[in-house]
Design brief:
Keywords (chains A, B): DNA-binding, Transcription, Transcription regulation
Domain Bacterial purine repressor N-terminal (chains A, B): 2-50
GO molecular function (chains A, B): DNA binding
Number of domains of chain A: 2
Strand content of chain A: 25-35%
Shape of chain A: globular
Radius of gyration of chain A: 20 Å
Largest sheet of chain A: 6 strands, mixed
Oligomer: homodimer
Domain Phosphoribosyltransferase (chains A, B): 84-227
Protein name (chains A, B): Pur operon repressor PurR
């Protein structure tokens, strides 16, 4: 946002706007709302980079864990119902802020996820990073045009599955951040990593809201999770994921 | 948000906070950013209701129309590629603000949409209205738990299709706003209307980003659209929808 925008809107000199921004900057930083960056020069201006402090992130995750640790969420086969959490705009905003904080200083060009429940996570993270998001699908839909298709082994079931992404959705050499709601065996995330390769793009990182504690070799080695969820015998127990060491280290 | 929150945070008297809010209120209203409502009484406080003015909404729709009216978007069968628009957080925010403006004074409890491409629209509208959103699906996924299923006739193809929604996602008597990205025959929207009935909920309204101009009796009579899109013979022509008469009347 160039300074002239504010100068015109508020009918003030650029120097007074600049002073006001300094005050805003200090306030945002002190409250952990975000970073207000001033880019100097004729084409310069300001850029707001939202972030979250460790203490607030801990509170967010603690609230998530309390909401998740309910046996009424248990579903047959060791699955967990969390559509209500992923349909709550306030919760999504907080999750988006946490992942955006991790990649604040990295050059992310696009956020990638897989339909359906990953979409709200991707949208929220993309909103805070101010970059587009792209949706990989299990089916090929006519409204996507030509697609690139990838086969992958579903980690939890060792079935071969297919995923597809519209050819026009990603430019080569894009820096891609993968996010999803839940990781079990990691097969789906692994499939998205192959997809990033197929587009000659670069993987920047992987973030999941919840990872399952179910045993089994996991295809994905490096990722950030907010929660670890143990769902067995009609019981759901949730604990903090590895986000502290990954983000606030 | 109760006034005591601000009073504590900024270490000020409630009366000074109240004065500051009056200034904010006037600024927001003058700029068309939104409405700051003060709720009196001990449990009172403030509530921010974002809206958009007619002039800005017109600009948003004009930009959308310019982006849509490109023949490179044409897909076989008279479909239109718009995944890039629906993956752009800034565009989604503007679309969300427009639909939120329409229902500013109505009691909406939830926003409903169908996977996959309706999800970003629903999330953005729900974010501005500060209510949850629920996602109807074409498939039944294990992570949704028990579902309610509805059969409907796909308007454009006269095929019988099925959609499902998790039983726990909507409370009876909820006021539901349906949104989607694209309406052709209206069969999918019609299916979601049956779904609202099945949950003993109330339909508040229907909003779509784009409606097709393709002929054929449409099942849905009352809806708001931002654009009308004509896609035939490798050509995509886009015009304003009925939003002016529906929202800014």
């Amino acid at each position: 946002m160039p300074l002239t925008f504010f100068a015109e809107r508020y009918d003030s000199a650029k120097s007074s706007i600049s002073e006001d921004l300094t005050i805003l900057k200090r306030t945002f930083q002190a409250r952990g709302t975000g970073l207000l960056e001033t880019i100097p020069g004729a084409a310069g201006g300001t850029r707001f980079l939202p972030y979250i402090l460790k203490e607030e992130a801990n509170q967010v995750v603690e609230t998530l864990i309390n909401q998740m640790s309910s046996n009424t969420r248990y579903l047959p086969g060791g699955y967990v119902y969390m559509s209500d959490l992923l349909g709550n705009p306030a919760t999504l905003r907080q999750i988006g802020r946490i992942f955006a904080t991790q990649y604040l200083n990295q050059d992310v060009d696009a956020v990638m996820t897989i339909a359906t429940k990953g979409v709200p996570i991707a949208q929220s993270v993309a909103d805070f990073l101010n970059v587009p998001f792209v949706i990989v699908r299990h089916d090929t839909e006519i409204t996507e045009g030509s697609t690139v298709n990838v086969n992958y082994v579903s980690g939890s079931s060792t079935r071969i599955e297919k995923m597809s992404l519209s050819k026009r959705s990603l430019k080569p050499d894009s820096n891609v951040l993968i996010v999803d709601d839940y990781m079990r065996g990691g097969g789906t995330i692994g499939g998205m990593m192959s997809m990033v390769d197929e587009f000659d793009a670069n993987l920047i990182g992987v973030g999941v809201v919840a990872e399952s504690t179910a045993p089994g070799g996991r295809a994905v080695k490096d990722y950030t999770s907010l929660m670890r969820v143990d769902a067995e015998n009609d019981t759901v127990i949730s604990k903090p994921g590895n986000y502290l060491e990954k983000i606030f280290n």
